[in-house]
Every structure is written in C-alpha cells, then in structure tokens.
Amino acid sequence: MKDVTLKEIAKKLGISITTVSKALKNYPDVSEKTKAAVNELCQKLHYTPNSFAVNLRTKESKTIGLIIPEVMHHFFSNIINAIIDEAEKKGYLVIILQSNESLELEKNQIELLINKRVDGILLSLSKESNNDAHIQEVINRKIPLVMFDRIAKLSNCSKVIIDDQKAAFDAVQHLIDKGCKKIAHFRGPLNPQISIDRYIGYKKALEKNNITFDSKLIYTCEDITFQEGIDYARLMIEEHPDVDGIFAITDLVAVGAMSYFNEVKIKVPEQIKIIGFSNWFMSQVVTPKLSTVEQPSTEMGLAAFALLLEEMNCHRDNLPFTPRTVVLPTELLVREST
Amino acid sequence: MKDVTLKEIAKKLGISITTVSKALKNYPDVSEKTKAAVNELCQKLHYTPNSFAVNLRTKESKTIGLIIPEVMHHFFSNIINAIIDEAEKKGYLVIILQSNESLELEKNQIELLINKRVDGILLSLSKESNNDAHIQEVINRKIPLVMFDRIAKLSNCSKVIIDDQKAAFDAVQHLIDKGCKKIAHFRGPLNPQISIDRYIGYKKALEKNNITFDSKLIYTCEDITFQEGIDYARLMIEEHPDVDGIFAITDLVAVGAMSYFNEVKIKVPEQIKIIGFSNWFMSQVVTPKLSTVEQPSTEMGLAAFALLLEEMNCHRDNLPFTPRTVVLPTELLVREST
After folding, report:
1. Residue B149 forms part of a structural domain
2. What is the pLDDT of residue B3?
3. Backbone angles phi, psi at A274, to 5 degrees
4. Which domain holds residue B76?
5. A55: in domain
6. Which end of chain B is more exposed for a tag (fewer CB within 10 A), N or C?
7. Do A70 and B52 lie within an 8 Å CB cutoff?
8. Has residue B1 been placed in a domain?
9. Per-residue pLDDT averaged across A96-116, rounded?
10. B323: helix, coil or strand?
11. Chain B CB contacts of A286 below 8 Å
12. d(CA B246, CA B171)
C-alpha cells in the first residue's frame, strides 16, 4: 500500500504542508477548524507519521533489545514478561532474541541490534559467553547496556544479580540442618558465573560444617535439563548409594532426579532430601513438593529495565552515567522434599 | 555518542561522499585500495549505516510484531521460541507484546506496531477480542497479518489453527472408551473460539455415545488457572460426587484438579479419570502423569511465520495475496491419569 504523505493531505485541503504538520502537533497558531479538518482527513486516509523519518530527526528509536539464553525457561519467561510490560508503559518496544546458549549467535544478535539502532540493550549471557569483544563493542559505542542474571563480572556496565553464593550456601546449610551428611551437587556447566557461584556456595557450606568436600559427588549438567536430572540420579545411586542429600543447580534438574527416585521407589525426603533453585512453577505441582530457592524474576526484570532507562535518559541528554550493580535478595522455600 | 557520518569519513580520507558510499556497497568503479581504506576507517570509527535512513529508502523495516495473550504460558513460550528463531534466519527482528488478555491493551499495541511500521503482524487474540475495529484497521491498511491459535473466524486474514472440536471430541471419546459414564468439563471463558470449539467437541462426543448432556457438569474457568482447577474440583466433588471423568480446557487446570484430589485422597485414575489439553511440560512430571492432547506449538509458530513471510513478500513486490487457513493435526497422548 502506498503511504499517505503530509503533502497529499495539504494538497487535498488546499493548505501548506507546514500548516498540516503544525495542526497535527496541535500548535496554537493553527485554527481549531483547520486542526479538525486535518485530523479528520488524516484519520480517513489512514495517515501515520513516518516513524523512520521521526527516528532520523530524534535519533531515538524508542526500541530496546533483549537477548536471553532461552525463552522456554520459566525464569526467563517471567523476566520477559516484566520487561515488556514495563517497557511499554515507558513508551519502549522490545525486540527479543534468544542466543540458544551460543556465543556465535549472541555476537550476531548484538550486531543486529546495533545496526537496528536500538536505544539500549538488556543482556543475559549465553553459557559460552564472557567479557568478549562483542560486549566491549557495545560499551565502546556507548550504547546503554544492562546485564542481568548471567553476567560477566569484568564488563564495565550495569548489572542486576542475586547473591548466588549466599543462596546456594543457604540451600546446602538447610540440607545439613535437616540431617544430611553426604550431599551431592548437580551443578551447571563450568563457565557461567551463576554456575560457579552456586558451586562455591555449596563448598563453603560443607566447609563451615566440617564436611569434607568430595569431588566425586559433583555431577555436571552441561545442558541443565530434566533428562540430566534423571541420568545423574541413576548414576549417583550406582556410584554412591549412601548419598542422603542433593543440591541441584535448578528445579528442572531436581524434578528430573525426583522422577527417577519415584520410579525406583527411593523415598524423598525419607531416604534422600532434595533442594532445587529458582522456584519454577512445576516445583509446586510435583509429589513431593520441591524445596527450592526463590529467585526474584519479576523484580530482576523491573530493576534491569529501570537501570537501562536511567542510562538511556542520561545518554539522550548527554549526561554522565556510572554503571551500578544491583543485588536482589533470595528466599529459601522449604517444602516437602527436604 | 555522536554518530559518525559518511561526510566525516569522506572528509578524513579526502574523497567524496559518493565515493565512500559506493566503496561500502562494493561498486566496481571504486578502486580496491580506496575500498580498503574506507572499510578500515569505518571499522575504526564504529560507523554503522543509519538504519532509519535505510528504512526510509527501502520502506521495509525488517521488523515484525508479535502479540500474544501471555508470555508465561507454556504453549506461547514455545511459539515465541519458534518464531524468533525462524524470523532471525530470514532477516527479521521480532517485537513482542503481550495483551494480558485485555482488548484495550491489544488495541494500543496494534496501533504501536502500525506506527512503528512493522512489515507484518502475528497475532493471537486476547480472550476479550474478536473481529473488532483494530483488526479491521490492520486489514484495511493492507499490513500483512496472520492470526494463530486464538483467531477471529470472520477476519479476512491468514490463520493457523488446530481442529479444536475434533481434538476435544477425541479426548472425551477416550474417557468414554475407558469406562467413564459421567464426565464433567472444566471449560474456558465464553468468548474465545478455542474455548467454544472444545466445548462443542465435548458435547458432540457425549451425543455420539448417547450420554445425556448436563449443563450442571460444566465449570467455567474464567482465567484458566491452576487455582481454578483446585476450586472447581472441590466444588464438583460436593455437587456431583459420582463424576468419574473430567475433560479440562488445558493441562494447568487439570493439574490443579489433580492436586486437589491428591490432597483429599481421591484416586486418579481409579475413582476419577482426567485428561487435559496442550501437553504442558508439567503434565509429564506430576504423579500420576497426565493424559492430554498434544498441540503442535513449534509447527504453529513456523507455519504462522511462513504465511506472514509469503504475504510480506507479495506486499513488497505489489503482488496479490489471498489469505489462507492452515489446520495442524493434534495427537492424543494417553498417560497414567486415564
């Protein structure tokens, strides 16, 4: 469809383009009668201001980019939810991309967003990414950037995180308080900071309680899936039938392990206690209900967008902005599995 | 940050703007040496072609809009997943908005996307929406539009759906085949077509098997939540303790009902058989595992985007396009709850 232009509107009404433009912006020096005529005709002909031309003038696209590792993840869907609702309220649209945990894809997506001239970027890193060149490129170009959850500690940008070490420490301390003596950890892959921090929290809790750390009790879930929960539970029971507690990197893995124990009639929590992480919805509907760590996903989305908005406003007004890190509190949710 | 312009690049190299522009587009009449110099300097100064100016020239934004009722819904996250991956492969970015089941919000979002000049819109209606004026506006403006899952039958646009009536019929027939004589239906709200069609499928299955329809066995879940599943299961047991089968509008409601039965020691499937709809992930991890209807979410996302792409290409090339409706097959998944 050919777009209607201001010129055509002006011609049809026998007035100047400037008058049409002023009428649409409700300038006081245009008569109410002319304004009414212009508005009526614009509506009739489906006139829309050309947003590309508006963008060229204002240099703002009123669009932000959001890159997350995966949409199908309970925690991230919650965050998307919070961000798109809040962004819309503040007049921003959100382009969402998922890296599928690939550094290569993430790099391309950063480039796409830069070329698209988004006003800012919200980023949760893929498990392969760190403080790499593509992140530096965003920072060098002074494009407002906030990392959340999966961050690179060394990147010079704002960050929103939880204290993963402390949260993991609390979860393992809870298992110990409930009487567990031999606790396995189903950890995440080696690179992401959250995976490292939860592992450190696990070790610290053992240390504090004078339980010797045993690297054989660490099972690494490369893809953090339900199936890995099942498989490592089976392997663990073969290798260490006397394990009496498991701390899992996330609820999905914990629920996988529980599903295996259920199948082979190993009783949770009587024989093995399990605690997950993130409070996925499913953790309330499984039998027994899963103890977990509540991660404030909505709050994380809101905090990340608020920081980005602050930086975008400074950027627009040529004001200085110093990146900040916001640490959100977590909460231990004790349910039936412990 | 001030953007680097072609003019500045030209000045620094002592050549014309036209030569810089041609060098970047790899025109044959510019020497390799000049091209190399231009590319090197552009890289050094972080030059990016101004996408707004490019958009103004090509009239394409290479962006599409996607409006869904809610992100936090297993089925819709799956669809988002499929659409953003496929769109990216074809060179499109996706702006995602959620209507939160509100007609008012959906209207505003359609307007935002029109003003943003997206090349096309993918839409799954809110439960309050139908073939309303905002849909007509998109169609009148000839903006490529595809509805999926939650559609308005009367809208003159492409659609991707499943045969909800047949899928519901099959689910209820399955309960009857398993010996159920008195089957309740936890239905969705009155307006959305999927809710109407599943209800009709339920009635048709009863009719085919000479079971008298009883409107008292219909419980309407206005918000289609886990809690409604719990509440209506409780109410139903009070009112009709002899019900021996439930067909629920979606797995979330079915899992809510099961959680209530679990609490009050009513045995599923021995005393009551339950079947859900959509095959949410949680239906495999609850005890007993929930029978359900598999809805092809990834295929639906891919089919919707493919139709939109076809229409956008026709639109760009001024070719005619006739809207089509694609009906995807469903599959009955028999598990432990029946």
Report:
1. yes
2. 63
3. -130, 135
4. 61-161+297-330
5. no
6. N
7. no
8. no
9. 91
10. coil
11. 285-287
12. 10
Burial of B77 (0-12, 13-18, 19+ CB in 10 A): buried
Is residue A93 in a domain? yes
Give A48→chain B minimum CA distance, Å.
6
- Asked if B262 has any chain A CB less than 8 Å from its own CB, the reply is yes
Q: Are strands A218-220 and A183-187 parallel, antiparallel or unpaired?
A: parallel
DSSP A319: -
Pick from A51, A53, A28, A24: nearest CA to A40: A24
B285 and B178 co-located in one domain = yes
Same domain membership, residue B66 and residue B156: yes
Model confidence pLDDT, tens digit, residues B180-208:
999 999 999 988 889 999 999 999 999 99
Q: Are residues A304 and A275 in the same domain?
A: no
Q: A260 vs chain B: nearest CA distance in angstroms?
A: 10
Structure tokens that stand for B277 in this block: 């709809």
Count Cβ–Cβ pairs < 8 Å, chain A vs chain B.
Answer: 129
Q: How many domains does chain B have?
A: 3
**At residue A2, does pLDDT exceed 60?**
no
State whether A141 and A106 are in the same domain. Answer: yes
| pLDDT tens, residue by residue, A44-67 | 887 776 666 666 666 788 999 999
Same-domain check for residues B213 and B271: yes
Q: Identify whether residues B137 and B208 lie together within a single domain.
A: no
Sites in chain B below the pLDDT cut of 70: 1-3, 49-58
Mutate which: A86, A96, A255, vs B, most B CBs within 10 A: A96
Residue type (1 letter), B84: I
The CATH number for A91's domain is 3.40.50.2300
Residues A117 and A30 in one domain: no
The dihedrals phi and psi of B299, each to the nearest 5 degrees, come to -60, -35
The verdict on A255 and A301 lying in the same domain is no
pLDDT at position A1: 40
Q: Is A24 at the interface with chain B, CB within 8 A? A: no
Average pLDDT value for chain A: 92
